[in-house]
Amino acid sequence: MDTIIIRGGRRLSGTLPVSGAKNSALTLLPCALLTDEAVTLRNLPRLADIDSFQHLLNQFGVSTAIAGARPEDFGRVMTLQATRLTSTVAPYDLVRKMRASILVLGPMLARAGEATVSLPGGCAIGNRPIDLHLKALEAFGARIELAAGYVRAYAPDGGLPGGEYTFPVVSVGATENALMAAVLARGTSRLHNAAREPEIVDLCQLLVAMGAQIEGIGTSDLTITGVARLHGATYMVMPDRIEAGSYACAAAITGGEVTLTGVRQADMAATVQALTDAGVHVAAVRDGLHIATDGPLRPVTLATAPFPGFATDMQAQLMAMLCLAQGSSVLTETIFENRYMHVPEMNRMGARIETHGRTAIVHGVDRLIGADVMATDLRASMGLVIAGLAAADETRVHRVYHLDRGYERLEEKLALIGADVERVGGD
Ligand code: EPZ
Q1: Are residues 9 and 66 in the same domain?
Q2: Which of 76, 106, 160, 379 has the fewest beta carbons closer than 10 A?
Q3: Does residue 262 share a domain with residue 209?
Q4: Which atom of ligand 1 is nearest to the CA of 169?
């Protein structure tokens, strides 16, 4: 397992291209199952999770071809074609490596009338149930069976009739599965209290480009009129708002000045607000955001929330930045039950963070000290990298395979803005 060595204390500056969004790509890829025509996705990030999803789709007989990727390029173009499916089963050994595999359930059910997917199980940040995915599909007419660690979904002959479902809590993945099941239903389907994340809008836009009929895009109330078939499309994956926010925190904690190109400010308004409240200067520039700091960071009090609220996926990264604020910040994690595993590691670097259930109090300190730290999950790992960039000496972040799942070519990007980072193998 690789380790990243960061020799911190350097002020980051320069321009950084933002990659395609991981959490959009992971729901756009399974859309290829919904048609026998070619679907081409541009600006796909080069990430471990994308490779895993490609491998899973290949298991179903989906052909995938990657074009136009020079080694030095960020992003790739992938053309997928599910001419005919050779399997409708997503096996345990693939699903356990990437829980987003559950996103094949809805489209596979819509295309083939049945789907068998290993239950994804929990992960470091929580037990991650899928009950809402299943309830939405049942509301649309699916029959669901749970057996031997698998979920089996069946559509009636002739396909799903469609239906109506109100989510008791906002769920990104369940909204995505329900949308991909409904687009080929025989009737009309409605979703209420649906997720509104930009990645959901991206999914709706690809589905519409493929011929789907969806109303209410971008709102919590979606109406999907089923169509008999969908056709192929070419689509550009949206920029990654979480990657952009992560690098903004990295620039800010080092007192740096970085331009992030390709990001859409509207996707990350809550992050921009939090940075601004912390005293960071954020300005929209042509095709991106300019991040600058010219004084001490200020403490911030906020709670994570579904979009348009502050993204839970930005919590660890903001917390890292606030370790050096002048005063105490109060962060409340309302989405996942165990998303503070970066706290003890940051405290080992000299931070002063205390947690009480879902609330963390970040008492600002004057400096952080480099240390050996352990990555536990994707965003916690980035929080540790951000802390390491501010620490005056050496930080070694172990088990960085977590990072490779969500940050395209992290070391190259950090080096582009002046960081001293090195990846070494085998720890
Ligand atoms: C997506 O996960 C993202 N992953 C997560 O990003 C992100 O943190 C999360 O949305 C929230 O924004 C991808 O898009 C691949 P949820 P998802 O369903 O869909 C509960 C990252 O770091 N829930 O919106 O799994 C759940 O336990 C990852 O990039 C149920 O109770 O999240 C959680 O408390 C981490 N039953 C809350 O809802 C269900 O059936 C929100 O989960 C589904 C969810």
Answers
A1: no
A2: 76
A3: no
A4: 38
Q: Is the pLDDT confidence value at 427 over 70?
A: no
Task: Pick the last residue of a domain from 236, 268, 293.
Answer: 236
For 202-259, the pLDDT digits (tens) are: 999 999 999 999 999 999 999 999 999 999 999 999 999 999 999 999 999 999 999 9
Residue 426 is predicted with a pLDDT of: 67
**Same domain for 210 and 100:** yes
In short, whether 130's Cβ falls inside 6 Å of ligand 1 is yes
Among protein residues, the one whose CA lies closest to atom 27 of ligand 1 = 128
Q: Are residues 311 and 294 in the same domain?
A: yes
Note the pLDDT tens digit of each residue in 366-407: 999 999 999 889 999 999 999 999 998 999 999 988 999 999
Q: Identify the pLDDT of residue 68.
A: 65
Tell whether 264 and 395 lie within a shared domain.
Answer: yes
Give the pTM: 0.97
Average pLDDT, the chain: 96
Residue nearest to atom 19 of ligand 1 (CA): 173
Domain interval for residue 351: 3-18+239-424
Q: Are residues 138 and 157 in the same domain?
A: yes
For residues 269 and 308, is the Cβ–Cβ distance under 8 A?
A: yes
Distance 160 CA to ligand 1 centre (A): 25
The Å distance, Cα 422 to ligand 1 centre, comes to 32
Query: Interior CA angle at 390 toward 387 and 395, to 5°?
Result: 65
For residue 125, what pLDDT is reported? 84
Report the amino acid identity of residue 259: T
Answer whether 313 contacts ligand 1 (Cβ < 6 A).
Answer: yes
Residue 123 annotated to the active site: yes
Q: Which of 31, 123, 204, 249 does the annotation list as catalytic? A: 123
The Cα 313–Cα 336 span in angstroms is: 10
Q: How far is CA 323 from CA 4, 22, 234, 395, 397, in A?
A: 21, 27, 43, 16, 18
Q: Which residue has the higher pLDDT, 392 or 185?
A: 185
Write the CATH number for 270.
Answer: 3.65.10.10
**Which residue type sits at 46?**
R
What the block records as the tokens of 305 is 């929330």
Q: Give the position of tokens 């025509």.
A: 37
Question: Are residues 205 and 306 part of one domain?
Answer: no
